[in-house]
Amino acid sequence: MRIFKNYVTLFWIAQAAFLLVKIVFAFRPEINLFTEEAQYWLWSQNLAWHYYSKPPMVAVTNFLSTSLFGINEFAIRIVPAILGIGSAWLIFQLTDLLFQSKKIAFWASMILISMPFFLLFSTFHMTDSELTFFWILTWYLLAKALKEKQMKWWVFAGVSAAFGLASKPVILLIIPILGFYLFLRKDLKTYSKEFVVFGLVFMLGFLPSLIWNMQNGFQTFKHIATLGGVEGEKEARTILDALKSFSEFIGSQMAMISIFMIPVVWVGVKRFKKQPVPDALFLLLPALVPFVAFGALSFLTEIQANWIAFSYPTLAVCFAYLLSENSLNWKKYQSWAVGLGLGLPLILFLPEAFGWKKVTGVEKVELAAFRRMAGYDQIAQRVMFLQDSLKAKGPFYYSESYHVSSELAFYLPDHPQTYQAAMGARRNQFDLWESLDTKVGKEATGVFVSLHEESSEKVTQFEELIYEEEFPIYFREVYLRSAKIQFWKNLEKYTPIHTGAY
Question: Where are the transmembrane segments (predicted)?
């Protein structure tokens, strides 16, 4: 039997098939937007040069997609899906550039799309979706610059990195990684001019953030410093706390890369002693430097699993090359690893039909995986039903949680601007928008929705409570949790609790 070996065509067939699965997933009615997705969409309805915690790129792409496709889940999730295809194609091109092999390039792209972090970033619209794309694009353009020795590629790479900086500031790690790479190659002096040009173009992407933060009390800088454990209240950490945090960091990063690739790492270490991988430093440093830096930081503070996962795509190139140079059994392992890495999430992505997920127990896994993405459309529909029944005209909607407020804005008809009642949580974008203060003394109904609080009376005083209920939320027929819904008449006083926490 003749084996099909047009690897470019195979790449596009595989990508088209997986894109179709993601589109089907986006239309599943029982799965709503992840709360961060809803928040970033709401940013796109309030376009700015920067936001409290992140640069504007995620808001810009949401604005473009929803302008084209309307405000719906598909419009939000088609963006990471397309960026995912673009990222996989760039890994294909980078691998082919380095190894002159479309077969290795194909497998590098397949390994990449099977990695858990990449499945996450290319399915749900997070700031990491844009960041990962521009990270890969920048390293591809830097590879072109080093191979072809033309200044234009350094400039293009700088532009790409600037767009990455408009996605998430952690991409600044490129500067020390690239400098370290050139130093180890003894090429830092040779490419000093190009390195400076790249850095200057790169830093143009920082200007909107800098200007916005200068105008807004450097909110983002304080937020990032708090997350990194530099500012804010610090809990005393014992040696056991530090070791636990570090071990959790290691475990989370292995899970992000893929447990199926751990044996390949072992093979790579053994093989590297005999024959180094070509351009190994160029492929490994982008992942290893952030891993070591954040691993050290994990002894001091908690590190979220996704914070450095964007830096791992070049590992897929290493894995594909290592497996291509090994025995037939390892090549079979490659196929199984990719198949399982894609197949297991595929089971979750596909919709329920004829009750097979319930019978096989997959539904229980779905409940755990999608618990935080269920029920917001149900809440919105219930609010509208009650609003109509109570004849509440021109109400305003709010929650103590910016997550719930963002979801309400997305799922309520006409997508109203919602509010957050400041009840002692850390600062967020809602603190910079119109406050509940503007509703004091206005004859209007306030609709409070919460998944955790019984009431907002700690910070609000209304004329009277009109109606309240505990509304049950379901995932298909399975009960998940309840939401408190209250209708209040005329806000008389609002005394927000601001802790100063970032």
Answer: 74-92, 104-124, 153-183, 195-212, 250-269, 281-301, 307-324, 336-356
